[in-house]
Design a protein that fits this description.
The structure holds 2 protein chains of 2 kinds. In chain A, 23% of the residues lie in helices and 35% in strands. Chain A is built from 8 helices and 21 strands. Chain A has a 6-stranded mixed beta sheet with strand order 6-7-8-3-9-10, with helices on both faces. The two termini of chain A are 44 Å apart. Chain B is an all-alpha fold. Chain B has 2 domains: 151 residues, MetI-like (MetI-like fold); 276 residues, MetI-like fold (Orthogonal Bundle), CATH 1.10.3720.10. Chain B is built from 23 helices and 2 strands. Chain B has a two-stranded antiparallel ribbon with strand order 1-2. The chains are: A alpha+beta, B mainly alpha. At the A-B interface, strand 6 and helix 2 of A face helix 8 and helix 9 of B.
């Protein structure tokens, strides 16, 4: 059954989904490689969960095909697919203990009864829940239920593990801890992960590749670094990290290309400059740091938000505004009204397609 | 469930607040504890020529338990009621499962259609089965005319079969509603998790859906069983000698020359037997774990049929879904049709169209009096029940009364004991307290079961409300009265109206308890019941059709008037 050709493990080909007249997912093509940690990232209603449910088999796409290991599984019901899901709500069976929940997929897939206890113990051990095996779901905390849901999904050793915002209901500390657990587990067991989230931090820190989605459309598919440093459009630029979107007009005279946006006019090194560009908050340097940057300008501090490890400074350039992020310092606090010198480099200015 | 601070200002609200817990205890003592104590007490007394003799004895119990006939009767009553509940469960649960999990657009309609027959007079529904099953009835006419039978059979009516069928018929809506509610609470994500784990339809049902919904079915089953076991109207109308049930014997002890102590003892024995059965049912339905509702149970997407077999299965399922509805509505349709039939006898084929039976109703002064009495009883019962129900619900929701849960269950006991037993316990109490048979006796009797229903509906609504609404209102300077008027009442309005409507229909249609309380001034159902016993005229069909149409119109008006909830808050 294994099709060990060099093609991708999971392939979505022009997959779309419509509910009546509402198009939840525009035709989308995505390929996921064996052993990859792949994320679908976007705000709610962007189509990421629909995509995941199509892969799991809970939805039949209105168009397109889904292939797993070279086999067409577009119309295969979920109970005959080699995929398992970690549900957003965990979906632990409330009348079964943790161990019974984990044993359930093995029983349903007719694994010999003699093998089941050992595999359940192993899976529960992998998520470090051995002490809680006999608890019922309502006797466990959110984080513990989360781990059991994870154990139940990996115990059957699926070829693809689907995770639907699994950390959404956890508090910040637990979420960060679980991120490490997930990445560690994925490396250890080598299962392909398809991870749905709206949290860009989560996606950036864990994924090999990320598909950013919005409005039922795939916006950009790239590695975390590329997404961050080379966003394809203003949606990606503003959704991933924090960016100023500078939009204005491009003027060319006397062989020089100038991007004008409000009070800002930037002499571009590139003749084919686009009228819209993204500039990360942290790419703008403030004060002495700005010396020697490609573009240097004077501005007044409009507002300064102290964020602990950094300060978010809104700069007023005589009408237009830019936001800079500077490392916070014990001394030398920036106050609203202060005149400052700021600057950035051309290479941080990312031209946007739209 | 927060105990609110004392109000800053006095006023009526504050006074009510102070005395209201007392009224809860008072109600419980007067309308639940006292009647039941008196019932048990009476069972240890002697009777001489219909007069109570205050002389303790165990004779009634030894007489009840030693008699082979009574033993047989108890056994038969329990097994008949059990069989009826079982038949109802076998029909209602699969239907509820289908409607809950697979219907989308027509879901609300499908549920309403099962519930509507509850609003149609109980007597009408029983009576309809008599018309269907009788020797000259619809079923026989049909079977003979199609050649399936050579001559009409008398095996259908006046048999245990007829009793079980009719009781099951009446229980279906209860079992359905309770199963449906439980099934709706099973989150779709659990079903998906099961499929995701490799389970097919059957395994998902057996391992996930059934364990999580069987308690709902058990509650419906228990309700069906209780209704059946306390019913003496149905067996006496369709049961004949074979279908006799204990309720009929108990009822007869409270008739003209009855033996109250013996009837009371029989009731106590009946209650003991019923408790045993109910205990067994709930023991069987026990389950572990707590279902945390995370997402609503939206229907599954049915895969489009692909093979010929898929199509065949789909059609079989569709037929199987329609059949229960036919079963529910056929009797009602038949009554309506015969109310326009120009013949004295209730057989097919129809002989012609007439409005005579309706015209005849206008001249019947007794009938009109009974109708007026019914309306007075229902309106007074509902008005009092709503006032008391709101006060009690507020006490339970906002005051930390000790044993609050127990008190609530205590007040609701009259809803949960067999009708026959409730009836006689109230008769005994009313007699002792010197409340004469007549309208007030009936109103008090009805309030014992109407008020708890109204109270529980309002309480359920109050407990879902965020307590900070009340706190916010008090914080903003309103006193308790103002808070109730401007904040609380608008949010529980639909619950109050819903409760009132349900209470009204319960009161208007009640026969089993009322029959003991009316004396010489019958309410409409009692009047009709007497008519049916003393001889039949097709006018009865006409009355029932009118009541049925009026009920449905009333429901529709209520639904329009109540309209959508103002309090759309999701919890």
């Amino acid at each position: 059954m294994l099709n060990k050709s060099n093609g991708p493990l999971l392939r979505l080909d022009q997959v779309s989904k419509a509910y009546g007249s509402y198009q939840a997912l525009q035709p989308t093509s995505i390929s996921v490689d064996e052993g990859e940690f792949f994320s679908l990232l976007g705000p709610s209603g962007c189509g990421k969960t629909t995509t995941l449910r199509i892969i799991a088999g809970f939805e039949v796409p209105s168009g397109g095909t889904v292939h797993l290991g070279g086999h067409d599984i577009t119309r295969t019901p979920p109970n005959h697919r080699d995929t398992n899901t970690v549900f957003q709500s965990y979906a632990l069976f409330p009348h079964m203990t943790a161990a019974e929940n984990v044993a359930y997929p093995l029983k349903m897939r007719k694994v010999p009864a003699s093998e089941i206890p050992a595999r359940v113990t192993e899976a529960i051990g992998q998520v470090e829940m051995s002490k809680f095996a006999e608890r019922l779901p309502h006797e466990m905390s959110g984080g513990q239920r989360q781990r059991i849901a994870l154990a139940r999904a990996i115990v059957g050793r699926p070829r693809v593990l689907l995770l639907d915002e699994p950390l959404g209901a956890l508090d910040l500390k637990l979420r960060e801890q679980m991120q490490h657990v997930l990445v560690h587990l994925q490396r250890k067991i080598g299962i392909t992960f398809v991870y749905v989230t709206h949290d860009q931090g989560e996606a950036l820190s864990m994924s090999d590749r990320i598909a950013v989605m919005s409005g039922g459309r795939l916006q950009q598919l790239a590695t975390p670094r590329d997404l961050y440093y080379q966003p394809a459009n203003s949606f990606v630029a503003s959704f991933i990290g924090k960016s100023n979107v500078i939009s204005g007009t491009v003027e060319t005279n006397a062989g020089r290309t100038v991007l004008r946006s409000g009070a800002l006019s930037i002499q571009m090194p590139d003749r084919a400059a686009k009228p819209k560009a993204a500039l990360r908050y942290e790419a703008i340097a403030i004060g002495p740091e700005s010396e020697g940057r490609d573009v240097v300008f004077d501005a007044n501090v409009d507002d300064a938000l102290f964020l602990g490890n950094s300060v978010e400074i809104t700069l007023d350039l005589g009408g237009s505004r830019l936001v800079a992020m500077a490392p916070s310092q014990r001394d030398g606090q920036v106050r609203p009204g202060d005149p400052v010198r700021a600057g950035f480099n051309f290479r941080d200015l990312v031209p946007l397609d739209d | 469930m927060t105990d609110l601070p004392p109000p800053a200002t006095g006023g009526f609200g504050a006074l009510l607040r102070r005395v209201s817990p007392l009224t809860v205890y008072l109600w419980l003592m007067a309308l639940v504890v006292l009647p039941n104590i008196l019932l048990v007490g009476t069972s240890f007394l002697k009777s001489s020529g219909g007069v109570l003799v205050y002389e303790p004895t165990l004779a009634n119990y030894s007489r009840t338990l030693a008699s082979g006939t009574v033993q047989l009767l108890i056994l038969r009553t329990i097994s008949t009621a059990f069989a009826a509940a079982l038949v109802a469960a076998l029909i209602a649960f699969p239907l509820a499962f289908y409607v809950s999990r697979y219907m989308k657009r027509w879901k609300v309609v499908a549920v309403m259609l099962v519930v509507v027959p509850l609003w149609i007079s109980l007597l009408m529904r029983v009576f309809a089965w008599r018309i269907i099953l009788g020797e000259n009835g619809v079923l026989n006419s049909f079977l003979v005319s199609t050649g399936l039978l050579t001559e009409p059979s008398d095996a259908f009516l006046y048999s245990r079969f007829a009793v079980i069928l009719t009781l099951a018929y009446m229980a279906i809506p209860y079992v359905f509603v309770s199963s449906y509610t439980a099934l709706e609470r099973v989150p779709q994500s659990l079903i998906e998790a099961s499929q995701d784990s490799g389970a097919g339809l059957w395994n998902t049902f057996r391992n996930v859906v059934w364990p999580l919904s069987k308690q709902g079915l058990a509650i419906g089953f228990a309700l069906a069983f209780l209704l059946a076991v306390g019913d003496y109207i149905t067996p006496s109308m369709v049961g004949g000698l074979d279908g006799t049930m204990l309720g009929m014997v108990i009822a007869s002890q409270f008739g003209m020359a009855g033996n109250w102590p013996l009837g009371a003892a029989q009731s106590v024995v009946l209650i003991a037997a019923v408790s045993l059965v109910l205990g067994l049912i709930f023991w069987l339905a026990r389950s572990r774990g707590i279902l945390q509702s995370v997402d609503a149970g939206t229907g599954a997407e049915l895969r489009a049929p692909q093979t010929l077999r898929d199509h065949l299965v789909l059609w079989l399922v569709r037929v199987a879904v329609v059949l229960p509805y036919l079963f529910l509505y056929l009797p009602l349709i038949i009554i309506t049709v015969f109310s326009f039939n120009a013949s004295q006898i209730q057989t097919l084929p129809l002989t012609g169209f007439t409005l005579d039976w309706y015209v005849a109703l206008w001249g019947d002064q007794n009938l009109i009096d009974a109708f007026q009495r019914t309306m007075i009883v229902a309106l007074v019962t509902v008005a009092l029940s709503v006032v008391v129900g709101i006060v009690f619900a507020m006490v339970f929701a906002y005051r930390n009364l000790p044993f609050s849960r127990l008190l609530q269950s205590g007040i609701a006991i009259p809803v949960a004991i067999p009708g026959i037993v409730l009836g006689i316990s109230i008769v005994i109490t009313a007699q002792l307290l010197g409340i004469q048979p007549g309208i007030w006796r009936v109103i008090i009797g009805h309030m014992t079961f109407v008020m708890p229903v109204v109270m529980l509906i309002i309480l359920n609504r109050l407990q879902r409300l965020d307590p900070s609404y009340v706190q916010a209102s008090l914080d903003l300077g309103a006193d308790y009265g103002q808070t109730f008027r401007h904040v609380l009442f608008p949010m529980i309005r639909t619950a109050v109206l819903g409760g009132a409507l349900l209470g009204f229909t319960l009161s208007v249609d009640e026969v089993i308890v009322t029959l003991f309380l009316t004396g010489t001034e019958p309410t409409l159902p009692i009047y009709v019941w007497n008519q049916m016993r003393f001889g039949f005229t097709p006018s009865v069909n006409a009355i029932f059709t009118l009541i049925g149409v009026a009920s449905v119109v009333l429901i529709l008006i209520a639904m329009i008037v109540i309209g959508p909830d103002r309090d759309q808050e999701k919890t």
